[in-house]
């Protein structure tokens, strides 16, 4: 998803996000808490929710130039920041230990050059498949460099995704649409060819020791992805649910024929509401693909797991909207017996401003990001969470809404540059470094009786257990005041100590570790901070 996609998609937003008046206001008596009167958070180890599969990010679009041309020392440090789980001598993390990395399988717009119609050359992508039917595995060298680094650091889940079929398979010979008709760009007789291309990519990397756990054949199918040649922002294609069914069944067959074990990720909806509502040809996707009575049911396909993926863009306009959308999504997914994965998010809309005028600081953006992750995990019951763009040119100080690392290219060719770490990286790390694949979310309750909407401007808590007496709590203090929490633990037998890692506005407060402390009372929270508490 790009910033340009925001303008195209705004027209979908308002009709699908209307809320009942009852959700606009919280209710009930609120018991105020302060630093001197800790917020009591009850955590019962026996009351678990979803299992977390991964927390990750994507390398689009700028990994190609960085991985191919930038000095080795710089890209090595960038990889360490994303993937390392190691600590420095003082206990400070060297990176945020992502457990998923998204790799873009390109459609061949780079080879087309300026005639591709995509204006920014950095957002054109090479294709492994040549027009003559042969494969060139030296393509996408920069993307591959980071893919191999992810593997070397032990990232548990590699995810391949495609924004467009190879351009030679498309109706207009381009990697994006030129007609605004919401029809797939893929030629009607090329569905199996597209599926075979994707499975061949998976097969190649399997042989290289780079196993993709998941392959995503369509991306944000609800958007029209149309533009005039020379004005397009990126590769992309719309897909109807019928199209997605054809792609998915063809890909399932192709993976099976080649005896590959990668699973198919569907549907990467452009907005969460399309997963359960709407009237377009690519709406109500949970019901379409996971209702056993649906003619497009995919539950029986060998390579289709029991989850559906969507993007949290544009469902963050206010706290009531944020809560209502995720509550509806969680209820629908539960009804059909599947999981929900949040597979792309950055602050494309202006919800992160929360009504404030002027620029938002690094910490403002990081706190909003931490809030979105909390809401997706605790209300939406997301079983995975993935950030969109790890790096992008932009300010390192203000409105750091699109990236974890702010890039400053050194030249127009993008062959070198500098980068600055933003607070977004560390806020994501408060989750990714400590909530590991296989951990289960634990239900929590609070003594101040705040409902989910009001809590989104107060203190937000997410708790996870990772085996006997291992507890991780990520606590977002959204207020301007120092606060404290008093965890009340049930069904944990021998928790005796804890350590905190705090991200706050201070220059050195980037997952800053505390000393190991005895667990016997309240835990302090800095104002406007994200704190991960590791028990035992």
TrEMBL record:
The keyword DNA-binding does not apply. It comes from the Bacteria. Keywords: Signal. Residues 1-31 form the signal peptide. Residues 40-392 form the Endo-beta-1,6-galactanase-like domain. InterPro entries: 6GAL-like, 6GAL/EXGAL, GH, Glyco_hydro_b. Gene3D superfamilies: Glycosidases, Golgi alpha-mannosidase II. GO terms for molecular function: hydrolase activity, hydrolyzing O-glycosyl compounds. This is Beta-glycosidase. It comes from Mucilaginibacter straminoryzae.
């Amino acid at each position: 998803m790009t910033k340009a996609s925001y303008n195209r998609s705004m027209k979908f937003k308002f009709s699908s996000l209307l809320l009942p008046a009852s959700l606009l206001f919280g209710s009930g008596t609120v018991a105020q808490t302060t630093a001197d009167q800790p917020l009591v958070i009850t955590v019962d180890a026996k009351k678990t929710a979803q299992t977390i599969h991964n927390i990750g990010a994507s390398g689009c679009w700028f990994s190609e130039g960085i991985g191919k041309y930038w000095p080795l020392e710089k890209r090595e440090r960038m990889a360490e920041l994303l993937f390392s789980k190691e600590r420095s001598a003082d206990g400070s993390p060297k990176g945020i230990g992502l457990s998923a990395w998204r790799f873009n399988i390109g459609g061949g717009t780079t080879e087309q050059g300026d005639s591709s119609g995509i204006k920014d050359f950095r957002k054109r992508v090479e294709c492994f498949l040549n027009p003559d039917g042969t494969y060139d595995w030296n393509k996408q060298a920069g993307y591959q460099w980071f893919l191999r680094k992810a593997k070397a650091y032990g990232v548990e889940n590699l995810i391949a995704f495609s924004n467009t079929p190879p351009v030679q398979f498309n109706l207009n010979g381009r990697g994006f649409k030129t007609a605004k008709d919401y029809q797939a760009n893929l030629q009607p007789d090329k569905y199996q060819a597209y599926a075979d291309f994707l499975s061949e990519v998976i097969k190649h990397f399997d042989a290289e020791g780079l196993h993709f756990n998941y392959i995503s054949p369509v991306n944000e199918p609800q958007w029209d992805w149309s533009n005039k040649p020379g004005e397009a922002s990126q590769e992309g294609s719309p897909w109807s649910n019928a199209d997605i069914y054809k792609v998915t069944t063809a890909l399932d067959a192709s993976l099976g024929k080649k005896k590959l074990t990668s699973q198919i990720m569907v549907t990467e909806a452009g907005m969460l509401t399309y997963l359960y509502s709407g009237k377009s040809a690519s709406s109500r996707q949970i019901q379409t693909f996971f209702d056993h009575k649906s003619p497009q049911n995919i539950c029986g396909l060998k390579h289709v797991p029991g989850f559906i993926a969507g993007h949290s863009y544009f469902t963050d306009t206010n706290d009531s909207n944020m809560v209502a959308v995720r509550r509806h999504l969680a209820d629908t997914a539960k009804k059909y017996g599947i999981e929900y994965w949040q597979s792309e998010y950055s602050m494309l809309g202006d919800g992160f401003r929360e009504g404030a005028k002027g620029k938002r600081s690094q910490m403002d953006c990081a706190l909003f990001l931490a809030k979105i992750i909390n809401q997706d995990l605790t209300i939406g019951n997301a079983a995975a969470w993935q950030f969109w763009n790890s790096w992008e040119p932009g300010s390192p100080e203000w409105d750091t809404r699109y990236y974890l690392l702010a890039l400053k290219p050194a030249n127009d060719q993008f062959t070198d540059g500098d980068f600055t770490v933003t607070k977004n990286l560390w806020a994501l790390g408060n989750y990714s470094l400590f909530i590991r694949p296989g951990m289960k979310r634990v239900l929590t309750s609070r003594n101040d009786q705040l409902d989910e909407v009001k809590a989104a401007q107060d203190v937000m808590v997410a708790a996870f257990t990772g085996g006997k007496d291992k507890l991780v709590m990520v606590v977002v203090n959204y207020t301007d005041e120092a606060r404290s929490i008093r965890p009340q633990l049930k069904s944990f037998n021998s928790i005796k100590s804890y350590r905190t890692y705090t991200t706050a506005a201070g220059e050195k407060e980037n997952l800053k570790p505390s000393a190991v402390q005895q667990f016997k009372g309240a835990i302090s929270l800095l104002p406007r901070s994200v704190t991960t508490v590791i028990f035992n």
